[in-house]
Amino acid sequence: MTPLDQLRAIKDSEKAVEMAAYHKTTREVLGVSNPQIDDLVKEWRAARDVAERVALADELWQSDILEARIAAAKLLIQARMRPSDQSAWDLIHSWVPDFDSWAIADHACSAGARRLLADPSRLNQVEAWTTSDHLWSRRAALVVTLPWAKLNHLPGDKHAEREQILGWAASYVTDPEWFIQKAIGWWIRDLSKHDADRARQFLAEHGDQMKPFALKIAAKHLS
Asked: How far is it, in rounded angstroms, from Cα 218 to Cα 213?
């Protein structure tokens, strides 16, 4: 039985209708839960080497089934694959124009974030996403770089990288899209837990241009 067949074998049609409505998607939804996907991904990962996992992730993604795309991203998150693996990064990078929902994009960004930390030169590729006409590409630039918001001690290179990303966030503050504003709020909120002064500086400079709900998110942990 192929991995796609395994996913279809545990589909729940009633739950699929609920999930499709929740995610506001017209793509095929099987009604498979995250724990069920995790169990299958663990099985697939154990039976394949790195190249085979990347190939399977590509196959699952191309199916355009909600749970299969989530499973594809999860296959590339695991620790056993070297974070610097170029084929995995290239595949994740190729997925970005296909992002059209947070449920899929956030799993893929989680896999991408590990490979960005392993090779920060890839931030130059991510920077191109920030000027895309595609909402989900712009959002992904902040979601995939969230680890930089969570670093406590910054050597010079990491400080420069964080400032580069904060520059992207600053360029977004006038973007009216709800998902973009929320992504800014998340980034600054996470930053405030590790560098409250820099978060306050960002909000002092740009907070008046942010949507009120995003500003509230960003300032949640600031007195």
From this structure: 9
Q: Which two tokens stand for residue 67?
A: 């749970």
Would you say 141 and 183 are in contact if contact means Cβ atoms under 8 Å apart? no
With 0-12 CB in 10 A as exposed, 13-18 as middle and 19+ as buried, what is 159?
Answer: middle
Secondary structure class of 117 (helix, strand, coil): helix
Sign of CA dihedral 147, 152, 153, 159: positive
C-beta of residue 193 within 8 angstroms of C-beta of residue 150: yes
Contact by Cβ (8 Å): 3, 60: yes
Q: Are 29 and 16 in contact (CB under 8 A)?
A: yes
For 43-55, the pLDDT digits (tens) are 999 999 989 999 9
Rounded-to-integer distance, Cα 82 and Cα 88, Å:
9
Residue-wise over 181-203: b if at least 16 C-beta within 10 A, else e?
Answer: bbbbbbbbbbbbebbeebbbebb
Residue 209 pLDDT exceeds 70: yes
Q: What are the structure tokens assigned to 143, written together?
A: 């979601």
* Element housing 97 (H / E): none
Residue 80 has pLDDT above 70, yes or no: no
